Amino acid sequence: MANSSRMTSLQRREQLIRIGRSLFASKGFEAVSVEEIAASAKVSKPIVYEHFGGKEGLYAVVVDREMRALTEALSSALATPSDHPRQIVERTALALLTYIEENAEGFQVLVRDSPSTDPAGSFSSLLGEVSMKVEELLAVSFKQRKLPTKGVPYYAQMLVGMTVFTGQYWADQRKISKEQLAAHIVNLAWHGLSRLEAKPTLRFEGAKAKRNAAQTAALPSPAIITVEPVEDADAAPDLHDEDDAPDPEPTRN
């Protein structure tokens, strides 16, 4: 199955990486075989083994490249913590969406289920690192606003998770531009953060909310004044003043 066009070793390696990325993105790691990779590249299976040692090795190279590209984009967006917080949120959202737009197949590889042998340098570990950087920025903001910092790690996870999963949905739809989507993400994230309660509670659900509802229900009902309907029309009070009564008709002689 030798290819008629001769490639250098580096060119062949890059070709196999491109083919592997495309197949992993469309079918997932488990569904792709070395035979399919070799057939798509029009080479024999030993060529794939020679360059990567097998499917797992090729997958690891693809993931590593995408991780480095995304890490660089997000690190750059978070590199200037002294900027206005909203600017950081906007820049980070746009950085992720730009990566998705320019590396659609690579992003699909990252968000798909990874093999059980996937090393620690996985997409989830990258999101954990990004969340930690967001957490550091939020902690500073919370302290400045005198808000409790206990919930900061959760807010960081919420922001990162919301952006990533929204980006994943957008990658499949693409009905609006990345700038429009970034504006929507920032709208929810920024206005939500700017109106945080110091001690958030559930108002309608949860044990505390139900106890409050039970206590409210146990209170005596307010007095209600009712007016009984008048059953006898003759007993109805005369609402006319005597002065308003019509004059009697004059008598005739």
Give a structural overview:
By secondary structure, this protein is mainly α. It has a domain of 133 residues: Orthogonal Bundle (Tetracycline Repressor, domain 2). The chain is built from 10 helices and no strands. The protein is elongated. The N and C termini lie far apart (139 Å). About 4% of the residues have low confidence. It comes from Bifidobacterium pullorum subsp. gallinarum. This is TetR/AcrR family transcriptional regulator. GO terms for molecular function: DNA-binding transcription factor activity; transcription cis-regulatory region binding. Keywords: DNA-binding, Transcription, Transcription regulation.
So, the CATH homologous superfamily of the domain at 62-194?
Answer: Tetracycline Repressor, domain 2
Mean pLDDT across residues: 82
CATH topology of the domain at 62-194: Tetracycline Repressor, domain 2
Low-confidence stretches: 233-242
The CATH level-2 architecture of the domain at 62-194 is identified as Orthogonal Bundle
Helix tally equals: 10
* CA(first)-CA(last) distance: 139 Å
| Rough outline | elongated
Give the oligomer, counting copies of the same chain as homo and different chains as hetero.
single chain
| CATH class placement of the domain at 62-194 | Mainly Alpha
For the biggest sheet, the summary is: none
Strand content range: under 5%
What is the number of beta strands?
Answer: 0
Share of residues in helices: 55-70%
Secondary-structure element order, N to C: HHHHHHHHHH
Instruction: Please give the radius of gyration in angstroms.
Output: 35 Å
